[in-house]
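User: HD domain-containing protein. Structure?
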Amino acid sequence: MSGGEAELFLSMKRYDLAHAMTVAGRLRDDPILQKAALLHDAGKLSSNLGLITRWLYTMLELLMPRRLLSMVEEVDAEAVGQRPLERARSLSGSWKRGLYAQSHHGEIAAELLSGLGSEEDLIQMVACHQEDPSSERARRLRAVDDRF
Ligand SMILES: [Fe+2]
Ligand SMILES: [Fe+2]
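Assistant: Predicted structure:
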């Protein structure tokens, strides 16, 4: 891990760090995958995403997934900018920014890692970790991520 990547990792919230370490611990046989596991949720920046928004998001995901989807679509339509970080910051109101950050945290992490000069493989895996896995590696990351 480069100095910048280590700094990004250490800037994560304690519960994200614990989750990342657990996921990485199950993927020790593949160094790139292990690094992706450590950094995959680094887009959940505390500057964009508060604890209450995270909790609300999880509740809506469980109880009202369709409502959540339409809220995410509304917020997406309101966001302005080319890149995910810029789009998150364009939203006024902490819950809107939080909703955007939570639903796009993979892309936000990928943008941060790309700025740090991380490997393209790693960036791709992190960017898409919430979506349908496009490779065997991504499938493994998704499977372990979903379990913890
Ligand atoms: Fe994630
Ligand atoms: Fe995760």
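The longest helix spans residues 65-78. Residues 19, 40-41, 145 surround fe (ii) ion (ligand 2) (CB under 6 Å).
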